[in-house]
Design brief:
seven-stranded mixed β-sheet, alpha+beta, 10 helices, binds adenosine-5'-triphosphate, Ribosomal Protein S5, domain 2, 11 strands, Alpha-Beta Plaits
Amino acid sequence: MDELKVKALAKINLGLDVVRRREDGYHEVRMIMQTIHLFDQLTVKKIEKPEITIHTNMSFLPTNENNLIYKAAKLMMDNFDIEGGVDVDLKKRIPVAAGMAGGSTDAAAVMYAMNKMFDLKASREKLMELGVKIGADVPYCIMRGTALAEGIGEELTSLPPMIKCPVLIAKPSISVSTKFVYENLKLDENTVHPDIDKIIADMKSKDLGAVCRDMGNVLESVTIPNYPIIDDIKKKMVSDGAVGAMMSGSGPTVFGLFDDKKTAEKAFASMKESGLAKQVYLTDIYNTRWS
Ligand code: ATP
C-alpha cells in the first residue's frame, strides 16, 4: 500500500469542567468528548527519501515541523523501523484553533495511516501512548467515540455511545486564545460547574432532552462576557429548534444538537444566511471507533 486516504474527525465537548488549577499551571479537567462526522481529508503517500512533506489548502497553516502532522510522522519514524518518508496532503475543513481538536485529529490520522501503510502492527493502545507526546487530545482522537477525559485531558475512560443526532456547527469569525480563556477563568465558590456525571447518566438513558438540559462548559463563563457573539449563535440555534446549544472546548465554535433532521437543515440554512458565523456545517454524532 503506497497511498492511503483517511478522515480526521473533529470532536465536540458535551460537558467541560475545570476541577482545579495545578501548581505547575496546568488545569485538571473533566470533559465529555464526542466525535462528530466533520472531518479533514488526509492523503498520505510513501516517498523514497526519509523526509516529511506537507501540502494544504489552508495557506495560513504551517507546513513545516510546526504542523502537528509533521510531529506525528516524525514520532512514527523515530519509534518504528520505517524505510523512506511520507508526503501528506491535508484538505482542512475543521475550523482551526476553535475548540474542535483539529490539529490533534490530523496527528492521530497520520499515526493511524502510517501504522497501516508500513504494516507496523502497533496496537491502538501503543499509538495512544505515543500520541500523548504530541498533545493531550491526541490519544482521544486515536480512540474516537464517546469518552470521559480527566487529568489534563489525557486520562481516558470509554463511555457508552452518545445518542445519534444531527449536529449543527457554527464558528464565528473571531479568534479566541485558549491561554486567555484559562488565565481568566475564576475558580471559586461562585463558579457554576456542570454536573459531568449527570450528563453521562443522561446519555446512558438515551435522553437527548436531559443531555441538553444538563450539558455545560465552565469556560463559557470567560468567553461569553468577552465575545457575546457566542451567546447570539447559541440563542439563534435554540430559537431555530435545537434541543440544546453550547460552546465546544475553549471556543469559539458553537454546536447545536437536534432531534430531527428537517429542523436541523432549516437551522443550517438560516445560520448561513444570518452572517453570524464564518464556517457553518451540518453533520452528526459519529460513534465508530478506529479498527
Ligand atoms: P482545541 O485544542 O482547543 O480543540 P484546536 O484543536 O481547535 O484547539 P487547532 O485547530 O489544533 O486548535 O489549531 C491550533 C494551532 O495549531 C493553530 O494555530 C495552527 O497554526 C496549529 N496547527 C499545527 N498543525 C495544525 C493542523 N494540522 N491543523 C490545524 N492547526 C494546526
